[in-house]
Structure formats: structure tokens, C-alpha cells
Design goal:
- The protein is 15% helix and 24% strand.
- The protein is of the alpha+beta class and 78 residues long.
- It has a domain of 45 residues.
- Strands 1-3-2 form a three-stranded antiparallel β-sheet, with no helix packed on it.
- The longest helix has 12 residues.
- The protein is extended.
- The two termini are 15 Å apart.
Length: 78
């Protein structure tokens, strides 16, 4: 599903946090990626993330070598 709106995701989240005052940012597994055969998404994160990848549940994340400027590159298998 794609939702098109004039607001950025960031703006919507900022307004929500301001309206709520206090939020609980814990991950509760209430969403997931739909599987797409043969598709992957590559992203970069801090190198310490390599030690945390195994803790991520519900998705397969592979180490994809070093990224730019000291970051680590990962591949999310969809």
C-alpha cells in the first residue's frame, strides 16, 4: 500500500509526539515487510549494528560489507 500526502513522514511523527507528550517507542512487531521474491534493500548503519543483527526478528538481514565513511552496509532480504 502506498499513501500519498503533502506531509512528510517526519512531520507526521513530530506532530504525533507533540500531541501525545510522552510516547513508548518500544518495538512490538505490529508491522512487517511483504515478501517479494528475489528483492532486497541495501542500507547503511553504524558498525556496532553488526553485533545486533541477530536480535532482529521477522526479517533476514545480511552483512553486505563496509559502507562509506566508517558505516556498515547491510542487505534486507524481502
Amino acid at each position: 500500500m502506498v499513501f500519498a500526502a503533502p506531509d512528510t513522514n517526519r512531520d507526521v511523527i513530530v506532530r504525533y509526539i507533540i500531541a501525545e507528550g510522552t510516547i513508548n517507542p518500544s518495538a512490538d512487531g505490529n508491522w512487517s515487510f511483504a515478501p517479494v521474491e528475489g528483492a532486497t534493500a541495501v542500507f547503511e548503519s553504524g558498525p556496532k549494528a553488526r553485533g545486533l543483527v541477530a536480535d532482529v526478528k521477522g526479517v533476514k538481514i545480511e552483512d553486505a560489507d563496509d559502507g562509506a565513511d566508517g558505516f556498515a552496509r547491510f542487505r534486507l532480504v524481502l
